[in-house]
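Practice problem 4.
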């Protein structure tokens, strides 16, 4: 009698077979192109319970199993104050995916919800700090987050439209507050639509935003800037299906020589620096002997 595949095997096969082109290949490609994983790494895969971080956990688990480069992973779930339903959903999804999670509790939601000014910013900042701290406690040198291709595009457009700057989301970066720790984004080249399709194919349902603040907030989510940008990009794709690819490629091909100003390592620079240098070189070149 033929052996029946269990849930974990079916889900893993969907990644390497049906969604190989959309998920597995760009995941491996990003890891290699951006040199996200090195021999001897111990990586804390940070799971919020949403679709992105859960897929990331599954991919990292599979890569650790198959990779020629030896590294370790642990699957870290920070409970910032989830309600019982969301906590249970995370645990049951992890079990179905075959992911051995480590959960630790914090009071982030209760602290962030007491502030009247930008609780979401405070919550995100506190989350990051707790994750770095706990990952280092477990001997990890990297944390992996579930930001994907669509996050990269939307962040780039948002920074220009609403932040008055050209700023992207790098595939990896050094922590400024936790020496020796790095943050990596292995889903960097995977589209959100493909993640959603994978979830639907496997009949997986993950938690959305679990914040107690947004649960009780009456503000219409449609006015959020990220959703505005998401809808704008969707509209632009109707006329130019390659618009996301163009934006993504543009942040890999920045021509600083054409910008009137830019910032690097916290220091501002002007095009006049280069302009004046070229002027001096031309004057020296044309100066009579």
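Answer key:
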């Amino acid at each position: 009698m033929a052996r029946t595949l269990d849930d974990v095997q079916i889900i893993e096969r969907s990644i390497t077979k049906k969604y190989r082109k959309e998920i597995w290949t760009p995941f491996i490609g990003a890891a290699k192109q951006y040199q996200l994983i090195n021999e001897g790494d111990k990586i804390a895969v940070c799971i919020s319970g949403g679709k992105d971080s859960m897929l990331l956990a599954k991919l990292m688990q599979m890569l650790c199993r198959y990779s020629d480069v030896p590294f370790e992973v642990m699957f870290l779930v920070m409970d910032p104050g989830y309600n019982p339903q969301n906590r249970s959903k995370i645990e049951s999804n992890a079990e179905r995916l075959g992911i051995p999670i480590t959960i630790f509790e914090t009071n982030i939601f209760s602290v962030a919800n007491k502030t009247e000014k930008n609780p979401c910013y405070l919550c995100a900042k506190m989350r990051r700090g707790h994750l770095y701290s706990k990952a280092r406690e477990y001997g990890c040198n990297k944390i992996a987050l579930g930001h994907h291709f669509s996050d990269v595009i939307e962040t780039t457009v948002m920074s220009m439209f609403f932040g008055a700057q050209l700023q992207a989301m790098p595939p990896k970066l050094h922590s400024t507050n936790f020496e020796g720790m790095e943050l990596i984004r292995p889903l960097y080249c995977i589209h959100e639509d493909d993640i959603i399709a994978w979830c639907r194919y496997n009949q997986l349902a993950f938690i959305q935003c679990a914040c107690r603040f947004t649960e009780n907030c009456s503000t219409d989510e449609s006015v959020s800037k990220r959703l505005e940008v998401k809808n704008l990009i969707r509209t632009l794709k109707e006329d130019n299906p390659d618009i996301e690819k163009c934006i993504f490629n543009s942040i890999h091909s920045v021509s600083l020589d054409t910008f009137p100003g830019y910032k690097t390592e916290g220091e501002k620079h002007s095009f006049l620096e280069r302009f004046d240098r070229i002027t001096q070189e031309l004057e020296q070149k044309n100066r009579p002997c």
